[in-house]
Amino acid sequence: MRGILTFLTYIIFGLIAANCINVGYYNKYVFAQGLQHAVINAPPKDDVQKAEEDAANAPNTYDKYAPASTLKRETLEHDLKHLKTVTYKQAIDAQRFLTTDGDIVYLEGLYVPDTQDNDVNTMAFLNEHFKDKEIDLYVCKERGCKQNDRLGDIRAHGVTQKDHIWIQGLLLRSGFAQMRTRKDWPYLIDAMYEAEKIGQSDKSGLWSTDGFSILDAKTITDTHRGYSIVEGRVYSVAMVDNKVYLNFADNWRKDFTIVVPSDVRRDYSKYGVDIMGSGGKKLRVRGWVDYYNGPTIEIDHMQQIEWVNGEDNKDIENNK
Which one, of 153, 191, 152, 159, lies nearest residue 173 by Cα? Predict the structure, then answer.
């Protein structure tokens, strides 16, 4: 009896393994959010193909924004280094594409809302305009930075070799994505801010929808969660247990708050920014909204905060 059970167990595990191996790029794709990874159903292949046809017949967003989405080599190489040139094959999801050599490239520096409609439209846009094109990949060059994510995908900025179209900049200008900085990838901040602001002012793509707007710090509610950009004027500043709390209303137990940990506060000090002197200033912060005495974003690097009038941004945005 024990032998039969063992035999059946091997058969069951063998079937499971075979099923896992037999997964095509269009059946499953990997969605990465920070250090959390989950395998979810990809948009059906037919939906992507239909979106490509619709994109080809629609007013040409590419022609409108591509000429201004170029990026000079010296700008790229100030922060990054050239890794290699690849040939674009197809999008795997809204932020990853497959090369003809079998590499998977993760387009760093973006937040792309993970709705199926946006996934389909972004994948169609990428396939329509970059298929079979040679793409120069630029990766971080600082010691300790990670050029690959946990899945082994290449974290990079992509620029077409022929006409120098910066893929991330084009997606930001076209309203397919928002800028997202990371602690270990605070690069090309100025260029990404500029591209995102153009998309916002033109109300291109998702900027024409309510879900993609910049939230008001006074009206954001306790029920709001997820990655967001929040803007408002700092009402008061406090330090508790070596953390700085930037409060945006008179009731710190309920209002929106930015939390600045001690290590980030020290980073600000190195660049001559007095974060404790932020009272009365208008700030814009991007990050994950959580709840702790009201809606809260706790930052882990300086580039998450932008001074709306620009007075304290210059040195911060150039920081590595």
Answer: 191
**Contact, 196 vs 151, CB < 8 A?**
no
- CB burial string 152-191: b at 16+ within 10 A, e below: ebbbbbbbbeeeebbbbbbbbbbbbbbbbbbeebbbbbeb
SS3 of 122-187: HHHHHHHHHCCCEEEEEEECCCCCCCECCCCCEEEEEEECCCCEEHHHHHHHCCCCEECCECCECC
- Are 316 and 271 contacting, i.e. CB atoms less than 8 angstroms apart? yes
Instruction: Kindly state the DSSP code that residue 235 receives in the 8-state scheme.
Output: -
All domains of the chain in start order, with CATH: 41-206 (2.40.50.90), 214-317 (2.40.50.140)
**For all residues of the chain together, what is the average pLDDT?**
82
Model pTM score: 0.78
Q: For residue 17, what is the DSSP state? A: H
Grouping H, G, I as helix, E, B as strand and the rest as coil, residue 177 is: coil
Please give the pLDDT value at position 212. Answer: 82
